[in-house]
Specification:
Elements (H helix, E strand, L loop, with lengths): L6 E6 L7 H17 L4 E6 L1 H5 L6 H18 L7 E4 L5 H10 L4 H5 L2 H9 L2 E2 L7 E2 L2 H4 L1 H11 L4 E3 L5 H18 L7 E3 L4 H4 L24 H9 L20 H10 L6 H8 L6 H10 L4 H27 L2 H30 L6
Helix pairs in contact: 3-15, 4-8, 4-16, 8-9, 11-15, 12-15
Bound molecules: adenosine-5'-triphosphate and magnesium ion (MG).
The site of adenosine-5'-triphosphate has 18 residues, from helix 1.
């Protein structure tokens, strides 16, 4: 398996429009990797089948958001000439691979997955069915296994995602080792790629809750207009103990500073220019944080800076979106081409898998 091709697979569930958490957690990295020219193949998956596992009653929502997510990708800089955008449910080999992998994972093992546990809790899916809670759809429970099919179908070597996906990657790696152990070296072992800074691994909501999430209404969307973003920033949760400007403040659990770390932190190549232009009193984020902690720096001032920083990132995204929105059939054509390429790739993997398992009866 040496001289292995370098392949990226990653994606999003079309359960809503993409927000700045998705952007810093994964999307921004994908665009950088795409433009680095260091990868042989890049697959960006719109995981509609996975979205249906907990939205079976609402297929209209998934259909509508499929286009939203595709527009978000293209606006953020995913280039269809360099990356294949694909629709998960249209790749027929995926459910078949999932079915074989299911035999290599125990119910007990899926139950231990911390992300599945917390997502079940969030969705009101209980272990036992009761009057006021719904039971867990089997498809939802098994989604970490179908994710292993997604990753391995394309021979992905690198999966750039946020922190909540760590248990999914671990599960995939276990399946790969198990499969290769039983049937011989067939599947490629993927590596997770987390964002460089901690803030971007799990961006909190504007309300200060642990994760910005479509389902919690605490998001700034990539498609929000300038005024909506500015309003969301100016009403953001900050340090509740920082009442007067002169009070010493906290920066650690303060989402305003966490967003600044994600968008203007020291590992950000634009950070220096952003401070020079919008906050020339400070050389970098550390200096601004120190001032806030010391006291004497007001929330409004910090929020205005954050607003400028976000608008700098979002304005080119908005411009590209306006262009793509003019020709929606062209967007569907991009999806059609990406999906066809992906299907052929997954088909080859499935043939390899069937051969390894000795179920390729007719050669
Ligand atoms: P859902 O509530 O439907 O699960 P979601 O907001 O969790 O939606 P996903 O489509 O499940 O979004 O995740 C897409 C990608 O975005 C994953 O790589 C995930 O790790 C990343 N991601 C999602 N939310 C955040 C966040 N708040 N901060 C950083 N990364 C995030
Ligand atoms: Mg999720």
């Amino acid at each position: 398996m040496e001289n292995r091709k370098k392949v990226i697979l990653t994606g999003d569930r079309p359960t809503g429009k993409l927000h700045i958490g998705h952007y810093v957690g994964s999307l921004r990295r994908r665009v950088e990797l795409q433009n680095s020219g260091k990868f042989d193949d890049i697959f960006i998956m719109i995981a509609d089948a996975q979205a249906l596992t907990d939205n079976a009653k609402d297929p209209g929502k998934i259909r509508e958001n499929l286009l939203n997510v595709a527009l978000d990708y293209l606006s953020a800089g995913i280039d269809p000439a360099k990356s294949h955008i694909l629709i998960q449910s249209m790749i027929r080999p995926l459910p078949e691979l999932t079915a074989y992998y299911m035999n290599l994972v125990t119910v007990q093992r899926v139950r231990r997955n911390p992300t599945v546990k917390s997502e079940m809790k969030m969705r009101g899916f209980s272990e036992e069915e009761s009057d006021n809670e719904e039971g867990t759809p089997v498809g939802f429970f098994c989604y970490p296994i179908s994710q292993a099919a997604d990753i391995t179908a394309f021979d992905a070597t690198v999966v750039p995602v946020g922190e909540d996906q760590e248990p999914m990657l671990e599960q995939t790696r276990e399946i790969v080792r198990r499969f290769n152990g039983i049937y011989g070296e067939t599947l490629v072992l993927p590596d997770i790629m987390l964002p460089g800074n901690k803030a971007s691994r799990r961006l909190p909501g504007t309300d200060g809750t642990a994760k910005m999430s479509k389902s919690l209404g605490n998001c700034i969307y990539l498609s929000d207009d300038e005024e909506t973003v500015s309003k969301a920033v100016m009403t953001m949760y900050t340090d509740p103990t920082h009442l007067k400007v002169s009070d010493p403040g906290h920066t650690d659990d303060n989402p305003v500073f966490i967003y600044l770390e994600a968008f203007a932190g020291e590992d950000n190549p634009d950070a220096k220019a952003l401070f020079e232009e919008y906050a020339p009193d400070y050389a970098d984020l550390n200096e601004m944080e120190e001032h806030y902690r010391r006291g004497g720096l007001g929330d409004v001032k910090v929020k205005r800076f954050l607003n400028s920083v976000l608008q700098e990132s979002l304005s080119p995204i908005r411009k590209r979106r306006a262009e793509y929105e003019k020709d929606i059939p062209a967007v569907y054509e991009i999806l059609r081409e990406g999906t066809a390429y992906a299907e052929a790739t997954a088909e080859r993997t499935l043939n390899r898998v069937r051969k390894a398992m000795g179920i390729d009866y007719f050669g």
